[in-house]
Amino acid sequence: MPGTFASPPTPWSGNAATPAPVACLSQLPVSHPSGRLAARRSLGGAARYGGVTRRSPLLGGDWYHGGRCAAVIFDSLEVSYGELWGSEQGMTHPDPVSRAVAARRHAAGTDYAVLLSARERPLALIEYWPRGMWRMYLFDDRSWRIQMIDLKPHGTGMLLAHRSTRYQFAGEQEHACGKWDVQETTTVSADGQVEVRSEFAGSRGASAEPLHARTSGPSNVPVRRFPAPVENFLCPVPEFGDWQVFVPFLAEQGHEPATTVVLRDVSVDEGSGPLRATGIERLFAPGACDTPEGPAVVDTVDAGLLRITSGQLAVSDPGCIDRTPRAIAVPPGEFPVTLSLLRTTHGTGVAAARVTFLDSPPREWDLALRPDEDLGLLGEGQFYGVGVDTGTAAFMDATRTVIDDRLDEDVFIPLDSAVSVELPGTGTEPNVIAFRAGRGDGSYPVWIGRTDDGQVGCVVVDFQLHSADGGE
User: Fold this and answer.
1) Each residue of 203-236: b (16+ CB within 10 Å) or e?
2) Which conformational region is residue 427 in: left (phi greater than 0), alpha (psi within -120 to 50 degrees), or beta?
């Protein structure tokens, strides 16, 4: 998948310590079709609304929202890190990670998010994406994500703010549902051609579609195009931790930095690191156990013999084996597959699946990784796992294929009334043993149990229906 500021600007001197001014992503004076004022902006200008004047010195013009005008004045910013937020709304990271993990992801070119806050109020959420792309969400004084700015590499060591989208909402309920009243988008080409587009939701109210995913046509789309120096839209590519680069953007929502802004790290500790294997063997110990849903009973059932011919075991969703499965080097032969069933008052589910290669008990457990996966990029309790999109997982030889047109008849329909099903091979061809996947779609850890001499003794998929260490 494919986990991410200073005082008003002076003329850009080329010094990396002083952020380059990003100017002129301004919006036109436009009127709503109903006749009421929707916005008033001018290039580099100021406007008066409700008796209060604000100037956005970087991205052009005044700032307001729905007649309110407020600012956060700050001389320090709290910095924290986490996973990408997606559609999550809130005041802080839903899935925080440590600064050290975020730094390793930055170095590896993988995604993360940075949150800049003042006095525990979010001001900017900055997302770092692969290939050097950045996205910034700006919060207003209500802590609403009200503006989105996309930046991409431009030349050497610079970012181009090539798109800025602002939203206006009629009220809190509309904001929570993503039903904008006005959407204003400014785009900038690499040669400085600017387009400003204002869209209105229409007389029936705002769009019911999520932000920046709207397909219904606007009732009116005023557009203005003009040239501007592309240098006005550039800022330096930040080194990790150099978040002052983004401080000037905060003026877009009326927030006012002091002459010097201090960054304070408030990110979570690295903790115990990625998910650890604890008590995996107990997943297959029959008897009573406790779960978050109450008392339960563990049973084990045999699911058949798995035939391996290539020396590579694949763990995959049988409906998605064209995607890269988790492949593990194992000896060829036929090996027993065992399912751990968890029986509760709500029903029976597959808690774990195991294929056993050696009778010797495992002495250590490793998470099954692909060549491009790095445990150092994971936060506390995180893991790389097998992805499930059909509610089903399977063990198979890495060379085995399935016929998509027969999946319903051969796999999914039989699993409506059974916990596992075998797709036999012809002659010496390897078979497939598929089984229900815990609570269904998701990602699940695959553990390799190794013997004292490092050989693969077994492979286990933990569907995390209950804690392997015996706790809740």
Assistant:
1) eeebbeeebeebeeebeeebeeeeebebebbbbb
2) left
The C-alpha atoms of residue 388 and residue 319 are separated, in whole angstroms, by: 9
Compute φ and ψ for 205, nearest 5 degrees. 115, -175
User: What are the distances in angstroms from CA 208 to CA 50, 415, 446?
Assistant: 29, 37, 40
Cβ partners under 8 Å of residue 198, min gap 6: 27, 28, 30, 38, 39, 182, 183, 184, 221, 222, 223
Helix, strand, coil share (%) of the chain residues, nearest 5: 10, 40, 45
Could you tell me how far CA 221 lies from the centroid of its own chain? 32
Residues 423/432, Cβ–Cβ less than 8 Å = yes
User: Residue 445: beta bridge partners?
Assistant: 385
Angle, CA 82 vertex, CA 22 and CA 242 arms, to 5°: 40
Angle made by CA atoms 270, 275, 277, in degrees to the nearest 5: 135
CA 289 – CA 297 distance, rounded (Å): 6
Task: Work out whether strand 364-367 and strand 442-450 pair parallel, antiparallel, or are unpaired.
Answer: antiparallel
Torsion angles phi and psi, residue 361, rounded to 5: -70, 145
Of 171, 170, 172, 225, residue with least CA distance to 201: 170
Backbone region of residue 304 per phi and psi (left: phi > 0; alpha: psi in -120 to 50; beta: other values): left
Give per-residue pLDDT as tens, 323-352. Answer: 768 999 999 999 999 999 999 888 899 999
- Distance between CA 5 and CA 57 in Å, rounded? 13
Per-residue pLDDT reduced to its tens digit, 21-70: 344 343 323 333 333 323 323 222 232 222 233 333 334 333 333 334 45
